[in-house]
Design brief:
Length: 161
């Protein structure tokens, strides 16, 4: 299914094509899935259920755990972040909302801003072939969120002006 999604939109993929790619018959497919969308949802659910990044540890550890999972599943990562062909991000956001700290440490606007930035960083990372390790990218993301080098950038900009 993931291989077919790389070259076609989900609505152009038939059960017959998936069965041919997987070398199974249609009866076997329908034993496990009701349709193509159910198959993709099953892949997404399996990925999320294997993560459990938000159950323990620090937010930094959870982020690195998540990045490591995407790092090891490059095909799914490409479909999620570059092609935008799955609902995996929505599933993960739901999981975070269900298991996040109470009360929220950030307001809704900050959460939206950080989430959009995080998605953009991950999209670039995946599109570039994941050149940084999950640990390196975690540090880049944390430094960006905390604006650790913002003062240095202001000083450099001031010298240029």
């Amino acid at each position: 299914m993931l291989s077919l999604l790389e070259s076609k939109p989900i609505n152009a993929i038939s059960v017959t094509a998936v069965c041919a790619q997987a070398d199974v018959n249609r009866t076997t497919f329908y034993r496990y899935y009701t349709d193509i969308y159910d198959c993709v949802a099953s892949i997404e659910k399996a990925f999320v259920s294997e993560l459990h990044p938000f159950e323990s540890g620090t937010p930094t550890q959870a982020l690195e755990h998540l990045l490591t999972a995407f790092y090891h599943d490059k095909k799914l990562s490409n479909l999620v972040f570059v092609e935008g062909k799955t609902k995996l991000l929505e599933r993960m956001q739901d999981l975070m909302r269900q298991s996040g700290p109470e009360p929220p440490l950030i307001n809704d606007y900050q959460g939206m801003y950080i989430g959009a930035g995080l998605q953009s960083i991950l999209k670039k990372w995946v599109k570039d072939g994941m050149p940084e390790t999950p640990h390196q990218l975690t540090q880049i993301i944390i430094d960006t969120i905390l604006a650790r080098n913002l003062d240095d950038l202001r000083k450099t900009a001031g010298k240029l002006g």
